[in-house]
Structures are given as C-alpha cells and as structure tokens.
Design brief:
The chain is an alpha+beta fold. Helices cover about 25% and strands about 35% of the residues. α2 packs antiparallel against α3.
Length: about 375
C-alpha cells in the first residue's frame, strides 16, 4: 500500500512538472501571447529570427508605357508643289530656319506659265470688252445701235470680268503676280519654322498629283517645315492602363540616347477606340524640347505620374494572408508585436502600398511573420 501511494505521488509530480515547466537558471522565459499581441523576451531564441523595417511614404504611382516621338502637327506643314516642272534652285537647306512665305524652291513650270498667260489674256479680253461696251453705250444713246447689241456687250463685259477674276485668283493661289510671265514658280513655306525634312534635288522633275496621295510610303512631301521645340509622343495604352490616364496628366520621358536625363510633358488626347489588332488605345502627349535634343521618330519609355496619396510602402514579404485577409505584425515596442489587418494597394518592385492600417515610420516585421502567427494560433487552441 505504501509503495502504491509513493508511485501515485511521483506520477502527480511529473504531470505537474509537465504543465508548469520550471525555468532553468540562464534560460529566457517563454513568449507571452495576449489576444493579437506577442511579446518575446530580449534574449530568447525566437527574437533573433525577427527582422523589422519602417513603413515609408508611398512613391507617386507610375504607369510605364512605350512610345514614339513625332513632329507636332499643330506646328508642322508638309509642303507639296501644286504645279509640275523642273526644280531650278533650292534657296534653303536641311535644318535651316525659315520665315513664313520664304521661298523653299524655284520651279520652272509650264503649268505656272499657263496660269500667268491666262491672267494676261483675261486682262486684255476685259479691256476689249470694256471699250466695246462704252462704244455701244454712246451709239445706243444716239439711236445708232439697237438695245440687243448693248445687252450683248454688257454680257460680254460681265463674262470677261469673271474670267479675269478667276484667272487672277488662280494665279494668286500659286503666289504669282499680275503682268509677269516667266514660268518660274516659287514654292514657299506657309509657316515659320525649321526645314526638318527635304526630299528634292536641283534638276528634279516633280508632279502636282503627288500632293494628292497623302501616303508617305508612296508620295514624299518635298519639304517638311516644323518647330522642333515641341514634339508629340504617341503612346499605346492597354485597357488596364486607361483608368490611370487622363488629359493634362504629367509624364516623364526616358530615352536610351540620354540615359541620365529625363524630359517632362503632358498628356493631351486619349483615343476613343481600341485598335482591334493590338487591343491598345492611342494616347498623345506634348513634350517641350527647347534645346532640341530629342528627335522625331525616337523610341522612348514614358512614366505616367499618378496623383500623390497618403499611402505607405512596406516590403511585400511583410504581408501574410489569413482567412482571405491581409495582415502584418507591427512592433509596438522592443520585443512586443501586434498583428494588424491592413488594406493593400498596388505592388511594385517587391514593395506594396498600404492604404489603411499603418502610418509612416511604424516598424513592420519582414522576417519571422509566420513564427509570430504560429505562436498566436498555438495560444488560441483549446
């Protein structure tokens, strides 16, 4: 009986020791868990597995697109010749600035000569009609000419006047002057700018129907005059990019030609339809180019800057999911960590935006999240 009692006491002592293990001298006390908080002793083995990092201000949202620089069509003109003929002189060269109505080329043109001759002939016919009308008026007043002859003379004068105005208007459209018949047509620039493209040589025969093609691959304009201090950037945006884009939004342009420099511009126009083949929408921006370092037809990458937000950035590895909800552990004090539900934003380059649940400077656990979560779950088990 005495032996059985002794054995029972030893068993109870062992069970008591298992439920309340004694802390040996020099060993750290166990972690303390309360609700959503875990406290680790400073010298515990678990604390060495924890790494923390402060939340930083969220950088401005950026959408990266690719694009191409082209001439600004609002300050660009492609010059064709309205008459055919042979180029005799080119007063300006490529890259040379020109004023409005400066001569770009001299063309020996029979078509232009015909327009000049038509004006001279129409002027002579009008003078003859005027004289005939005056003579018939005098004869009619003296009863020496019938009314029908006077009316015919008035009709002939009106026809001659109309023909003279038509011929003069046509010559004026070509930039010619009355009274000159030299067949030399002056091709002029309609705007001030810089000759950025030249596709004509002295002695070249040109045709007036080239201006009707409007297909650069088939019909090249003789000259392109533009203001290279302003360029357009044409971008291709996907359907997912559209909610982030709006007119007058700031953009930052990068080009391999100047890897250490950036250029700023603004979005001007968003297309109204998607390309059925590429499933992208055309976006057009304006890029100031005062020093003319950027060139038309450059391929560029563009960052579209979004609105500044009050979000914070943390490493993406600080976030873990439980019950389809995102959480982080926040260091409240040394060795004390609180689990907190957060509302997330977009992720970029290994960092994720937090819209709600964190403030700038708060320290989040980046290594050891699963360890802290395991301690929480173990304490909540019955």
């Amino acid at each position: 009986m005495k032996s059985w009692t002794s054995s029972l006491l030893l068993l109870l002592g062992a069970l008591a020791a298992g439920c309340h293990p004694a802390t040996k001298p020099g060993e750290a006390p166990p972690p303390k868990v309360e609700h959503n908080q875990v406290t680790l002793p400073a010298n515990s083995a678990q604390s060495t597995a924890i790494a923390v990092e402060p939340a930083t201000p969220h950088a401005t949202n950026r959408t990266r697109l690719t694009g191409r620089l082209v001439w600004d069509d609002d300050v660009t003109v492609r010059v064709f010749s309205p008459v055919g003929g042979r180029v005799t002189a080119l007063p300006v060269g490529l890259g040379q600035p020109v004023a409005a109505w400066d001569v770009l080329a001299k063309i020996d043109s029979p078509d232009f000569g015909q327009a000049q001759a038509d004006v001279r002939k129409a002027t002579a016919d009008l003078l003859l009609a005027e004289r005939n009308l005056e003579r018939l008026k005098i004869l009619f007043e003296h009863g020496a000419a019938p009314r029908k002859d006077l009316e015919a003379a008035e009709n002939a004068h009106a026809s001659a006047l109309s023909e003279r105005e038509r011929a003069a208007a046509r010559l004026s459209l070509y930039g010619g002057r009355d009274g000159v018949v030299d067949e030399i047509f002056s091709l002029r620039s309609p705007i001030a700018g810089v000759v950025v493209e030249k596709n004509v040589n002295p002695g070249q025969e040109i045709r007036p129907d080239a201006m009707l093609g409007n297909v650069p691959a088939t019909y090249l304009s003789l000259f392109v005059v533009s203001d290279p201090r302003h360029l357009w950037v044409l971008l291709d945006a996907t359907e997912l990019d559209l909610p982030l884009l709006r007119p007058r939004q700031e953009i930052v342009i990068h080009t391999p030609a100047f890897p250490t420099n950036t250029f700023t511009g603004t979005i001007e126009v968003l297309g109204d339809a998607l390309d059925p083949t590429t499933r992208t929408v055309k976006v057009r921006g304006l890029v100031p180019n005062p020093d003319r370092r950027l060139k038309a037809e450059m391929y560029v990458t563009v960052d579209v800057l979004g609105e500044a937000t009050a979000d914070v950035d943390i490493p993406a590895k600080a976030v873990f999911v439980r019950d389809n909800k995102p959480f982080v552990f926040v260091e409240e004090s040394a060795g004390r960590f609180e689990r907190r539900e957060v509302k997330l934003g977009p992720e970029n380059s290994g960092r994720i935006a937090v819209k709600d649940g964190l403030a700038i400077g708060q320290r989040v656990v980046t290594e050891g999240c699963l360890l802290l979560q395991t301690l929480l779950e173990a304490s909540n088990q019955p």
